Amino acid sequence: MAKTWWELQILCSPEIEDSVFWRLEESGCRGTASQKKGNLISVQAYLPESQAHLLDLAALSLCFRQDAVCLEAPLPSLQWKLIDEEDWSSSWKQHWQPQEIGDRFLINPSWIPAPENTERIIIKLDPGVAFGTGAHATTQLCLESLEMRFSDIPQSFVGSEERKEAAVIADIGCGSGILSIGALLLGAKKVYAVDVDSLAVNSTIENREINGIATERLSVAQGSIEVIQQLLVEPVDGIVCNILADIIMELVPSMSAIVKPTTWAIFSGILLEQSNAVTEVLEKNGWLVATLWKRKEWCCLNTRRS
Ligand SMILES: C[S@@+](CC[C@H](N)C(=O)[O-])C[C@H]1O[C@@H](n2cnc3c(N)ncnc32)[C@H](O)[C@@H]1O
């Protein structure tokens, strides 16, 4: 049976854009994108009809309004309508534009010609319904951390074995595959990408093809760390894991099975107020938090084995 989606359109002030994204993410929305509309931000998101009733949408609208009141921002508006599967991707595509991230990346929607006169590394993406367009702070922090890992040795890592030798990487919660592809384009030798969501797995496979990456360099499978463990010949050199804090804390103990003494890891998807709890779990499991990078209310922990 054809799937139907709620198309949500939120018109809000820039101060609450991030909390709107956060609420949408928590509600299971996919394909979230935003664009400027005068002084306001228009945020578009999609939710499978089966996952939300009208009352849920009304509750979501109330949350947006409460957030705005807390932040003393103008009240946002939320409109919704039902659309068919065929319409949702074409509708969403109009709202997503190329975006520069960090010093080196340009995320280019696959249906827009990529610029030729750029020195940036171009990641071509059609995330479909998977998370990972690069619009979210948590993804940006990971891409920037990967840039750092693959750049010349920053002072703080002099003497360590981290950086370019870190060639085999695990991407846990790959979504659209944006981080896997970013790591490979920066010079990683091989990435093992996993996601519990089959739609994300399909999206990563599709984006692997769009970017002309050889199948053997990007292995994609449905599942989580246990799947990587089965596929691995030897421990990984690096891990990227952009999932919510609660899930990260659950997964950390089983990561020990895929690492070696020099493995580094980038953990993102963590709200600032959750960073202490995550750090505690990491330290108990043999990780040392080297740096905490923050953007808006999110943070990303750059770690290595202690
Ligand atoms: C926030 S998205 C990150 C997507 C992409 N890596 C990025 O950085 O934009 C988190 C992804 O983790 C997946 N996920 C959630 N729990 C997971 C688990 N236990 N193991 C593997 N993947 C998981 C979700 O399906 C989702 O695609």
UniProtKB/TrEMBL annotation:
Kindly provide the name given to this protein in its UniProt entry.
Ribosomal protein L11 methyltransferase
Q: What does this protein do?
A: Methylates ribosomal protein L11.
**Broad class of enzyme this protein falls into:** transferase
What are the GO MF terms of this UniProt record?
protein methyltransferase activity
Reactions mediated catalytically: L-lysyl-[protein] + 3 S-adenosyl-L-methionine = N(6),N(6),N(6)-trimethyl-L-lysyl-[protein] + 3 S-adenosyl-L-homocysteine + 3 H(+)
User: Which terms under GO biological process does the entry name?
Assistant: methylation
Name the Pfam families for this protein: PrmA
EC number annotated for this UniProt entry? 2.1.1.-
CDD domains hit by this protein: AdoMet_MTases (cd02440)
**Main localization (coarse):** cytoplasm
Cellular compartments per GO CC: cytoplasm; ribosome
Q: Where in the cell is it found?
A: Cytoplasm
Could you tell me which species this protein originates from? Plectonema cf. radiosum LEGE 06105
Bilayer-crossing residues are none
Tagged with keyword S-adenosyl-L-methionine: yes
Similarity annotation: Belongs to the methyltransferase superfamily. PrmA family.
For this UniProt record, the keywords arranged alphabetically read as follows:
Cytoplasm, Methyltransferase, Ribonucleoprotein, Ribosomal protein, S-adenosyl-L-methionine, Transferase
Where is S-adenosyl-L-methionine bound in this sequence?
A: T139, G173, D195, N242
Gene name linked to the record: prmA
